[in-house]
Amino acid sequence: MGIRAEQPTDIKKIWRINASAFETEAEANLVDILRASGVSNISLVYEEDGELVGHIFFTPVELIGDASGLKLIGLAPMAVIPEMQNKGIGSLLVKAGIQRCLSDGYDAIVVLGHPDYYPRFGFVPSVNHGIKSEYDVPEEVFMVLELKENVLKGKQGTIRYHEAFGCV
Predict the structure, then answer these.
(1) At the fourth CATH level, which superfamily is domain 2-166?
(2) pLDDT at 168
(3) Alpha-carbon distance 82 to 64, whole Å?
(4) Which residues fall within 8 angstroms of residue 65, CB to CB, at 6 or more apart?
(5) Helix or strand or coil: residue 109?
(6) I need a surface site. Which of 33, 107, 128, 143 has the fewest CB within 10 A?
């Protein structure tokens, strides 16, 4: 029971987690497309009583307009099967994911997510740092978390995701 890295035998179960947690299969398909593309990723699962019930996925992103070489990563998606939601599993996945991104040397994490959920982990609107999303979304839903103090100071630009994000 607990959080661990994705294993090859988990792939179909991860697809089902994401498909059940969202209104469409787009997020589930996105994870499969990203994985198949060979893009580096961080993929963690939450297992309870031998069953996978939660998943979180991170892939590198790029800050266009800034040549500082920041190592940035995007959180997308994070899912928990409906019957296990609101039990703290998502929060555990986010916290474990943040720690993994930090240990892997990332400078910051971006997320397109609920503005009442992600700030509890330290995420703030990215516009506070002069950073915007490549997608036309409200400012309050595109957030960033600095993993290294003031690493985004003086930086600005637009976050670009892997091209697979435009396919779903």
Answers:
(1) Gcn5-related N-acetyltransferase (GNAT) (3.40.630.30)
(2) 64
(3) 36
(4) 156, 157, 158
(5) strand
(6) 128
The DSSP code sequence of 39-73 is ---EEEEEEETTEEEEEEEEEEEEEET--S---EE
Cβ(74)–Cβ(58) below 8 Å? yes
- Confidence at 68, pLDDT banded by 50, 70, 90: confident
Q: How far is CA 127 from CA 27, 51, 69, 137, in A?
A: 25, 39, 19, 12
Strands (E), the chain: 2-5, 42-48, 51-64, 72-80, 108-112, 124-125, 131-133, 142-146, 157-160
Measured at the alpha carbon of residue 95, what is the angle toward residues 29 and 114, in degrees to the nearest 5? 60
Q: How many helices (H) and strands (E) are present in the chain, helices listed first?
A: 3, 9
**What is the pLDDT, as a whole number, of residue 1?**
72
Give the amino acid at 119. Answer: P
Torsion sign over Cα 98, 62, 159, 26: negative
d(CA 93, CA 54): 8
Asked if 115 contacts 91 with a C-beta cutoff of 8 angstroms, the reply is no
Amino acid (1-letter code) at residue 64: I
